[in-house]
């Protein structure tokens, strides 16, 4: 009974604090995500007042938060739109991999960590945070923007690539070599393919199966289906987030609209819990020793992610302003990077603190980059335009005077 009481008190304090921080962020006009993370950092391992009783519940809530973020994101798009995006955006996925995995691999070799750690750190720097970015797109009201399908295309390609990357990394960490992960890899690819097939061919049947005139029944059916598919996907070594996203893709019409309105408050609650959970499991004392390499890596990969988004949006014919918004939106790293680092700490213990510091920097910087990259780029682009008119008359005045002379 005592444990339950302590858990309720801690949960109440956490949710109340989230509400107050969200209100503060709204007043100053930026995303509340950085405040959620810093709050978790202050009350987590090594923080001011560690929260213990509610730890297990918060961990489960964080998993549900990521699943709901990706489900709601999937509800915005149809299966045909997803396939079209994948067909048109795969070159952007290649550029994304080259530009953003390379800095992590190079840093690992510079630190003398070896090839396996290089593969792991490459994954940490490569994958953007679907959870953070989904929240940022909603907070900034950009779900309907022209560049948003481009951003989602890159994210989906990254998430699907995890179905290939994670089994290979696991095999390398176990010392089994590339062949050791072949079976797991085939299972992962088969699972993604099967879910995509159902979403494309039988999406209407899935929508009919969960459809209901009762809001309660619709909520229970959609939420239950999403959690079931996400759990099965994770059991088969595919990201639970990918499974949730594909469920959202499979639902359409009135079912998608009704589910979106019903699940939005739940998404906001559990998404906030996810970001707090990330901060709670970061020990502030482990950050200072690796801060300089983490800052250097964050600076480089911020630029490479912006370049990735800009290039991908340019290929899609998006305006320059949309290109910069797409680039800034992709900066944040989060859940996948932490999962990869957690797998790799057995082979290279030092990768844990570095990855944590790196992700913490970019998960705070990401929402700010999403908001300010485009305005800053616009201001920089305007500067030469203001100088040119003032310089031209000075250069042309003598010519005009000479031409006017007899």
Q: Would you kindly provide a written description of the structure presented here, covering whatever features stand out?
A:
- This protein has helices spanning 2-28, 33-42, 55-75, 79-110, 115-126, 130-139, 148-173, 177-180, 182-201, 203-210, 215-235, 240-250, 253-280, 291-315, 320-329, 335-344, 351-404.
- With 406 residues, the chain is an all-alpha fold.
- The protein has one domain (2-379): Na+/H+ antiporter like fold (Up-down Bundle), CATH 1.20.1530.20.
- Helix 3 packs across helix 6 and helix 3 runs parallel beside helix 12 (240-250).
- The chain is globular.
- It starts with a helix and ends with a helix.
- The model is unreliable at 385-406 (pLDDT under 50).
Brief rundown of the structure:
By secondary structure, the protein is mostly helical. The chain has helices at 2-28, 33-42, 55-75, 79-110, 115-126, 130-139, 148-173, 177-180, 182-201, 203-210, 215-235, 240-250, 253-280, 291-315, 320-329, 335-344, 351-404. It has one domain: Na+/H+ antiporter like fold (Up-down Bundle).
Count of β-strands = 0
Global outline? globular
Query: Would you identify the CATH architecture?
Result: Up-down Bundle
What's the gyration radius in Å? 23 Å
Mean residue pLDDT = 81
The CATH class is Mainly Alpha
- Helical residues, percent: over 70%
**Gap from first CA to last CA:** 104 Å
List keywords for this structure.
406 residues; 17 helices; mainly alpha
List the helices and strands and how they pair.
Elements: H1 2-28, H2 33-42, H3 55-75, H4 79-110, H5 115-126, H6 130-139, H7 148-173, H8 177-180, H9 182-201, H10 203-210, H11 215-235, H12 240-250, H13 253-280, H14 291-315, H15 320-329, H16 335-344, H17 351-404
């Amino acid at each position: 009974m005592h444990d339950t009481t302590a858990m309720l008190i801690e949960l109440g304090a956490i949710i109340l604090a989230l509400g107050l921080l969200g209100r503060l962020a709204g007043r100053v006009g930026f995303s509340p995500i950085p405040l959620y993370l810093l709050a978790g950092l202050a009350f987590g391992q090594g923080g001011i007042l560690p929260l213990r009783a509610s730890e297990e519940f918060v961990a489960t809530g964080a998993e549900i938060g990521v699943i709901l973020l990706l489900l709601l994101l999937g509800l915005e798009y149809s299966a045909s739109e997803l396939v079209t995006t994948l067909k048109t955006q795969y070159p952007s996925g290649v550029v994304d991999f080259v530009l953003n995995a390379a800095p992590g691999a190079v840093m690992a070799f510079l630190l003398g960590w070896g090839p396996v750690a290089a593969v792991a750190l490459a994954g940490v720097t490569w994958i953007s945070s679907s959870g953070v970015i989904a929240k940022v797109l909603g907070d900034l009201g950009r779900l309907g923007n022209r560049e948003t399908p481009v951003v989602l295309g890159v994210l989906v390609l990254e998430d699907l690539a995890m179905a290939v990357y994670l089994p290979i990394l696991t095999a390398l960490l176990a010392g089994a070599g590339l062949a050791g992960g072949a079976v797991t890899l085939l299972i992962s690819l088969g699972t993604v393919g099967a879910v995509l097939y159902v979403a494309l061919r039988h999406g209407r049947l899935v929508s009919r199966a969960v459809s209901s005139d009762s809001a309660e029944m619709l909520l229970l059916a959609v939420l239950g289906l999403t959690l079931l598919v996400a759990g099965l996907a994770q059991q088969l070594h595919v990201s639970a987030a990918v499974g949730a996203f594909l469920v959202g893709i499979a639902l359409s019409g009135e079912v998608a609209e009704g589910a979106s309105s019903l699940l939005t408050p739940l998404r906001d609650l559990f998404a906030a819990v996810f970001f707090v959970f990330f901060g709670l499991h970061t020990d502030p004392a482990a950050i200072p020793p690796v801060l300089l390499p983490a800052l250097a890596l964050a600076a480089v990969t911020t630029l490479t992610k912006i370049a990735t988004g800009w290039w991908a949006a340019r290929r899609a014919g998006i305006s320059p302003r949309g290109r910069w918004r797409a680039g800034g939106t992709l900066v944040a790293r989060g859940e996948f990077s932490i999962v990869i680092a957690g797998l790799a700490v057995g082979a290279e213990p030092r990768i844990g603190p570095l990855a944590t510091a790196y992700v913490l920097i970019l998960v705070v910087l990401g929402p700010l980059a999403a908001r300010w990259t485009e305005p800053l780029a616009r201001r920089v682009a305007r500067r030469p335009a203001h100088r040119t008119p003032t310089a031209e008359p000075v250069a042309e005045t003598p010519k005009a005077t000479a031409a006017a002379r007899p």
